[in-house]
Amino acid sequence: MEYSLNDLTDLFNILIKELGLNIAIIGSVALYYNIGEKRFNEDLDLFIYKGSILEQEDKLREICYKKGWDFGLTEFGTPKITVRKDEYEIEIEIFENIYDFYIPQEIIERSRDIKIGDLIIKMILPEHYVVLKARTGSSKDIEKLSLIKDLVNERKLRLDLSIIRETVSYFEDEEKIIISRLRSVGINI
């Protein structure tokens, strides 16, 4: 299932040009891309920060059907697509601010721009990813934070603690628990 972001140019064009959505890469792919990886085994998580994937769901479902891609739903009721590329499949989950899923606009504004084909796509910073994982706080997320701390200890990843502090401040009501979870894995801010 190893893929590059360029393998998904067709999907990105559909989301941005046909459906008029602005997207950001938010999951572990963003973390690994920021440490220099160009090929990925993980599912791709996308966040819609302008427009609504829910309003475009029927159109996206139709496009997926025509392309031979599987269309389903995430636990939040947003689209989940399986793109077939040659002999492998790539899982893409698409999110927007709905129910308990929330990414502040400030994170998107402070994300980096990457170029894929002729498109510019936002990608969150590793520091944003760390805070989002700490906010969610599931055992799987805490385990991921421990792996990130290992990357820092191995000098494969550098985290800017001032960016982490700033990002935590976007979740005013949850600051204490986020900081506690970060400290539990040795990320002291």
Category from helices, strands and their pairing: alpha/beta
The description of the largest β-sheet is:
7 strands, mixed
> N-to-C terminal Cα separation, in Å?
36 Å
Mean pLDDT: 95
Helix content: 40-55%
Shape: globular
What characteristics describe this protein?
single chain, 189 residues, alpha/beta, 2 domains
Topology:
Blueprint: H1 9-18, E1 22-25, H2 28-34, E2 44-50, H3 57-67, E3 70-73, E4 79-85, E5 88-95, H4 105-109, E6 112-116, E7 119-123, H5 126-136, H6 139-153, H7 161-169, H8 175-184
Parallel strand pairs: 1-7, 2-5
Antiparallel strand pairs: 1-2, 3-4, 4-5, 6-7
What this model shows, in words?
With 189 residues, the chain is of the alpha/beta class. It has two domains: 120 residues, Beta Polymerase, domain 2, CATH 3.30.460; 58 residues, no CATH class. Helix content is 41%, strand content 21%. It has a seven-stranded mixed β-sheet with strand order 3-4-5-2-1-7-6. The chain is globular.
In short:
The chain is of the alpha/beta class and 189 residues long.
